[in-house]
What we know:
The chain is of the alpha+beta class. Helix content is 20%, strand content 33%.
Amino acid sequence: MRKNFIAKPLLMCLVLVAVLLVSACNRKKVKHDAADDPAIVKIDSNLSHLLKPSNEQVVAKLPVIKADYGTKIFTEEVQGLVNYDTRNEKSIASRVSGRIERLLIKYNYQPVKKGQLIMEVYSPDLAAAQQELLFLKNSEKDPALLNSAKQRIMLLGMNAAAVNQLLKTGKINYRIPVYSHANGYILEKNAAPVVAAPSPTGGSNGSSDGMAGMGSAASTTGAAISRPSTPASTPLLLREGQYVSAGQSLFTIYNADRLVAEFSLKPALAALLKKGHRFVFYKNNEKNNMETGAIGLIQPVFKDGDNFTIARVYLHKPSFRVGELLTARIPVLLPKSWWLPESALVSLGNKRIVFKKEGNVFIPKQVDAGITIGGMVQVKTDISNWPISKNAAYLVDSESFIKISQ
C-alpha cells in the first residue's frame, strides 16, 4: 500500500511535465508558421514616409537653394499720372437763391480768367434789398441805417460800383453777376471728377489671387495700368432758367499752372518711404527726359477693394499736362535679412510657405516674409541652414491643402 501511495504522485508529475513540453513545442511551431505567412507584409523603415499624406510632406527630386543674407538696394519702377493740385482749386457758389438768367460758360474745362463774368442770376431777394436801400435813401437821414443796407446788398453779391450806380440812378438791377475769382479751367460740380490715380495691380496683401498666388507672390507695384481718360470738354448740365439756392456750389476752378504727379504704391513699399524721399521720373514717351522730384505727401487709399498708397510729387513746370502717364524709379535700401526668389514661396492668404528638404522629402514650413521687390522676397525668419525647394509651386497640386509643420 505504501508503494502505491508514492507511485501515484510521481506519475502525475510525469504526466504534467509531458503536457508542458507538448504545449511549448506547439507555440514554437505557430511562431515559425507566422513568419512564413505570405499574407503578412513587413514594412521597410526607409519607406515609412510614404504612409504620410501629401499635404504634410512631398517626395520629389527638385533643385534646392539656400537663402542669401545681406543688405540690398533695389530700384523699383512704379506707375503714376499727372493730376490737378487740389490745394489750388477754387469753388464758385451762388450767394443768393434765384433763377439763372444768363450763363456764359458752355462746357467743362473751359478756360476762365480772374474777374471774368460767368453767369447772371435773377434774385427776388436782391431786388427787395435794392428797394429797401432806395427807400432809406429817400426817407431816412440816418447814415448808419443806410450803410447797413449797402452792406447787405454787397453781401448778396453786388460790388461797390454797382451800389453807387444804384444810388445815383435809382434803377434797380434784377440780375446779380457771378464772377470768376481765379485763373484756370472750370468744371461743373456735378460733372465727373478729374483724373484719378489708378491702383496698382494685385491684391492688398502683395500677392495675386487664385492659383497664380501659389507660383509666386505678386510684385510690390503694378507693372501695367490702363490709361486714364484725359479731361474732355463736355457740355454743362446746368442750363439757363434753372433755379439755384443760396450757398449752392456750382463750379470748381482748377489751376493748370500748379499740377501734381501721383504714383500708386503697395503699402509694403510705401512703408519704406517718407516725405522728402527723392527719386527720378519721366513721361512714358520721353524716357530720355528725366525729372527729379521729392515726395510731398504720402496718402493711404482704399479703392475698388484694393489697399494702396499714393505718393504725391508737386510739379512747378508747365511742360506737364493733366492725364499724362509717368514712370518713376524709386531707390530703396533694405536692411540685412535673408532673401529668396519669389518662386520659392507659396502664399496662403496671410501666410507664406517654403518647402524645406529633410532627408528625401520636402516639408512645408511657415516663414515671416517681408517685402517683395525686384523678384526677391525678404524673409525675417532665420533660414540660413535650410535647403529649400527653388520651385514651391511644383510641390502643391490644385486640390491639396498644405498642413504646416511646426
